[in-house]
Specification:
Elements: E1 2-3, E2 19-24, E3 27-32, H1 33-37, E4 41-47, H2 53-65, H3 67-71, E5 77-82, H4 86-95, E6 103-106, H5 111-116, E7 119-121, E8 129-131, E9 134-139, E10 142-148, H6 159-165
Parallel strand pairs: 1-10, 4-5, 5-6
Antiparallel strand pairs: 2-3, 4-9, 7-8, 9-10
Length: 166
């Protein structure tokens, strides 16, 4: 089942191949989406921005709290995608006590977000172009479930919604 609002992707779409940088234990590193998804089931959830109210109080914490239950359903990795730079994502992860529960994937230039057609124009809030709030299940690079919240909403992309879909 796909619940989508004005999306360029949907169930059956192949996740686009994009390389981005993140801040790992060995400093700045590159990772491709191909590496993330090849041969495994991955849950991806995207949010408008680290440190923003709903993202920090509900969205990320929900996936941290439900990480074990999600992974118990055959999910190899949970990925949080946001149009933020690697330094912001690293600090946010530390402050949110993410640990190994969720991989925070910075989409600093919005390349993944744009390739997915999930851009959110947040310039009215002085946030620039960000990502829509959504969640998806990706199995070996193919999107098998996708839910995109309407701008300003938080419901369809929650950890509980993903658990129900798994």
């Amino acid at each position: 089942m796909t619940i989508v609002v004005d999306s360029a992707i949907g169930t059956g779409s192949v996740f686009p191949s994009v390389t981005v940088k993140y801040l790992g234990v060995d400093g700045m590193q590159e990772i491709s989406t191909d590496e993330i998804f090849k041969g495994k089931k991955v849950v991806v959830f995207a949010l408008p921005g680290a440190y923003t109210p709903t993202c920090s109080a509900k969205h990320l914490p929900g996936f941290i709290q439900n990480a074990e239950a999600i992974k118990a359903k055959g999910v190899a990795q949970i990925v949080c995608l946001s149009v933020n730079d690697p330094f912001v994502m690293k600090c946010w992860g530390t402050e949110q006590n993410v640990g190994d529960a969720v991989f925070l994937l910075p989409d600093g230039n919005g390349a993944i977000t744009k390739a997915l057609g999930q851009e959110l124009d947040a310039r009215a809030f002085n946030l620039g172009i960000r990502s829509q709030r959504y969640a998806m299940i990706v199995d070996n690079g193919v999107i098998t479930w996708l839910a995109v919240d309407k701008p300003g909403a938080f419901e369809l992309s929650s950890a509980e919604a993903v658990l129900a879909a798994l």
